[in-house]
Amino acid sequence: MRVLLIACGSRGDVEPMVGLAVQLRALGAEVRMCAPPDFTELLDGAGVPMMPIGQPLRPMVKGAVTGTKPQPPSSLPQRAAEMVATTYDAVAPAAAGYDLVVATGLIPAAAAARAVAEKLGIPYVFVAYFPTYLPSPHHPPLVWPGRSLPPEVTDNRVLWDLNTEHMNELFGQGINTHRESIGLPPVDNARDHVLTDRPLLASDPVLSPWPEPADLDVVQTGTWFRPEDERPLPADLEAFLEAGTPPVYVGFGSIPMRDPEDVAKAAIEAVRAQGRRVLVSRGWAGLGLTDDHDDCFAIGEANHHALFRRVAVVVHHGGAGTTTTAARAGAPQVVVPQFADQPYWAGRVAELGIGAAHDGPTPTTESLSAALRTALTPETRARATAVAATIRADGATVAAKLLLDATGGERPPVS
User: Fold this and answer.
1) pLDDT digits (tens, 9 = 90+) for 179-216
2) Among 112, 122, 211, 280, which residue has the fewest nearby CB atoms (within 10 Å)?
3) What share of the chain is helix, strand, coil (3-state, %, to 5)?
4) How far is CA 68 from CA 71, 258, 402, in A?
5) Would the pLDDT of 126 be above 50?
6) Does residue 84 sit in the same domain as residue 106?
7) In what order do the strands lie in the sheet with 50-52?
């Protein structure tokens, strides 16, 4: 059995697929992944063969966020069309001889993955990492650039109908033009074509439940983690942790920030105002220290599964992976959402009582101080500990068995 995984997006899109790849291989499957070249080192470290898709993602994302390479909404359809073609050109040769395609991430890239599967006559599965990416009468859709939703409309089904129109406007022409060029028929609904009517949902049922009843036949597996990460923490980080009380972790993962110096300053001042030490993760935002005081320490790559068990609070952007890893570690959280699924995760953290949702994407010393006061209470710590005991760690195993069983004749979670 040979499985091709496609993840075009940030590390939050790629990391869970690595977890799935490890479990598929443990069950005897041969696995290859297509992903942006930014993650070559990550995949090499996991021993997963990789075929790169397009150019590095980090400079493009940084330019869009910081404004150095502005991307007007009018350019989105053109860039989507380019992504479909680029992804198809990378995935098609990589898929030769494979039996199954599993895709996640950006809609144009997943559309190209499905086109490859159609041409080869093999199953295609889409996976989402959070419920609100999928149509449901229980929640509204995400808001896409230049395609705002009317505030007076509160019926979620009407909003999802509008989302269908928006997705067709942004992606439909690029997807169908490419499909025509490779001899495939056009699709009427770009979004539903990519998501399929039976997608996988790789998120935790307690942390992010899929509400029923719904139109889609969603298969929720639990979050896809790699097997327990046993990498030791760097010696200098270990020394900092041992030198005092648990610090507050501040990091925004693979999300660039418009004013990283101001964000770092506000965060460090806010943490110090609570009498706590600070651990700053540089990440794609390029956060750094504001002085050389010994109550602050900056890190690069580290094992979050080990680290988050030893911090007082995790301050982060609200990606699915970071939110779930912190929840699994029992660490209270402060989520400073930037875009996409991050407001959803901020809301879930607040609703579950395991932390605080920051109001908006731009933290100040005062706003972060208020959120930290909530996250640092004994009640929040106790609630985070209780929720941690409910987080499933077997999602990747569940998904791997499901996918392999499906290709063996069981009812497939595929289009």
Assistant:
1) 999 999 999 999 999 999 999 999 999 999 999 999 99
2) 211
3) 45, 15, 40
4) 9, 10, 44
5) yes
6) yes
7) 50-52, 30-35, 2-8, 100-105, 124-128, 200-201, 219-220
DSSP 247: P
Amino acid, single-letter form, for residue 196: T
Report the C-alpha dihedral over residues 175, 180, 182, 185, rounded to 10 degrees: 90
Shared-domain flag, residues 13 and 134: yes
Cβ atoms of residues 5 and 102 within 8 Å: yes
Tell whether 129 and 256 lie within a shared domain: no
Tokens 């129109």 locate to 165
Same domain, 99 and 15: yes
Cβ-Cβ contacts under 8 Å for 393 (sequence gap 6 or more)? 222, 223, 225, 328
CA distance 284 to 59: 10
Domain that residue 43 falls in:
2-225+393-407
Counting the structural domains of the chain, the total is 2
36 in the same domain as 116: yes
Q: What is the DSSP string of 23-74?
A: HHHHTT-EEEEEE-GGGHHHHHHHT--EEE-SS-HHHHHHHHHHSSS---GG
Instruction: Give per-residue pLDDT as tens, 379-395.
Output: 999 999 999 999 999 99
Cβ count near 6 (within 10 Å)? 31
Please give the single-letter amino acid code of residue 188: D
**Helix (H/G/I), strand (E/B), else coil: 277:** coil
Q: Establish if 230 belongs to a structural domain.
A: no
The torsion angles phi and psi of 338, rounded to 5 degrees, stand at -105, -50
pLDDT single digits (tens) 50-61: 999 988 876 666
Encode pLDDT of 364-381 as tens digits.
999 999 999 999 999 999
Q: Which amino acid, one-letter code, is at 92?
A: A
Q: Phi, psi (5° rounding) for residue 296?
A: -125, 145
Phi, psi of 400 (to 5 degrees): -60, -45
Residue 136: half-sphere exposure toward Cβ, Cα within 13 Å? 18
In a domain, 413, yes or no: no
Q: Are 37 and 8 in contact (CB under 8 A)?
A: no
* CATH number of the domain within which 364 lies: 3.40.50.2000
